[in-house]
Design brief:
By secondary structure, the protein is α+β, with helices and mostly antiparallel strands. It is built from five helices and five strands; from the N terminus they run αββββαααβα. The longest helix has about 35 residues, at about 110-145. The chain is elongated.
Length: about 200
């Protein structure tokens, strides 16, 4: 197994997971800095769980849970399930990758590392899909002439965190999986040891 690929995978996976955790927990999936009809110093933002209002004169945002009609709307349920499932799958995959690497007792277990790589790729792709769907919804509402000016939200910071974290996990999974495939490819046939024949 390529040691460099293994190291890159094990480094990128927790970095991506932390970014995804921050994107999931922070209520900034869509933002509206200056909402028409409200004071200019108020900034509005929505996440998967909360809706927040932040004033420049106050130290922190005032948040409340999403309204029930929004929280129980089926796309929001799917987004929540996808993001939380991606986090759990990413944590499991990283744990399997560490067990497969066996730093404390070599040699590593290529099968376990390859399975962890596939799971990491799936976890990252799931979050990328969820963030992209939310971005599509925000941009669709922003471009629609039927959307009131007070509801024209923009892409939030957490979408960029989600894309970055999901991409990092996909890249980590590819590093782990390709290291395993390269190992299998190199060890496909018996290597002949050089020797001399004395006649």
């Amino acid at each position: 197994m390529g040691t460099l690929s293994l190291v890159w995978g094990l480094v990128l996976a927790p970095m991506g997971w932390v970014l995804l955790l921050a994107a999931t927990a922070t209520p900034r999936w869509r933002e509206l800095p200056e909402r028409p009809g409200y004071p200019r110093d108020l900034s509005f933002s929505d996440g998967l769980w909360e809706s927040c209002v932040e004033a420049l004169a106050q130290p922190g945002p005032a948040c409340r849970t999403l309204p029930e009609d929004t929280a129980h709307f089926w796309p929001m349920r799917v987004l929540r399930a996808a993001t939380v499932g991606s986090l759990l799958l990413g944590a499991l995959a990283w744990a399997l990758a560490m067990l497969g690497a066996r730093w404390w007792a070599p040699p590593p277990r290529p099968n376990l590392v390859a399975a962890a790589g596939l799971l990491l790729t799936l976890a990252g792709a799931t979050y990328l899909g969820a963030a992209s769907y939310m971005a599509h919804r925000v941009l669709q509402e922003l471009a629609s002439p039927q959307t009131p000016p007070a509801d024209r939200f923009h892409l939030g910071t957490c979408l960029y965190l989600g894309w970055s974290g999901g991409g990092a996990e996909v890249l980590a999974g590819i590093c782990l999986a390709t290291g395993f495939c390269r190992k299998r490819g190199l060890s496909g046939g018996p290597a002949a040891a050089p020797y001399e024949v004395d006649y």
